[in-house]
Amino acid sequence: MLILALPFLAACGLAPSLTPYRMEIQQGNYITQEMVAQLKPGLTRDQVRFVLGTPLVSDIFHEERWDYVFLRQRANSREIEYRRIAVFFEEGRVKRVEGDIVASAVPGKPGQ
Q: In the chain, what are the domains?
């Protein structure tokens, strides 16, 4: 009986050094500074969709606003990266962009 229990006891000694596999979790639209830099006032909805992809949130009560949300948790870290971009339209064209990543300056308008 002791001979049968010996492999089990040896395996228990290895258990503290074993850790489960953790994968990276990514949700939403990954948006870079370069992508946001391509957004300019006057772009159409189709042009914005081409640059940023389909918005994660498109609210029927706020049809003139598209929200892009991105969340990523690295595999071996508890740190969570969270970004949010909101694109506002007026008459079907980009009026302004707000969020965590700053859009490029509008030519001819200093201070923006």
A: 22-99 (3.30.1450)
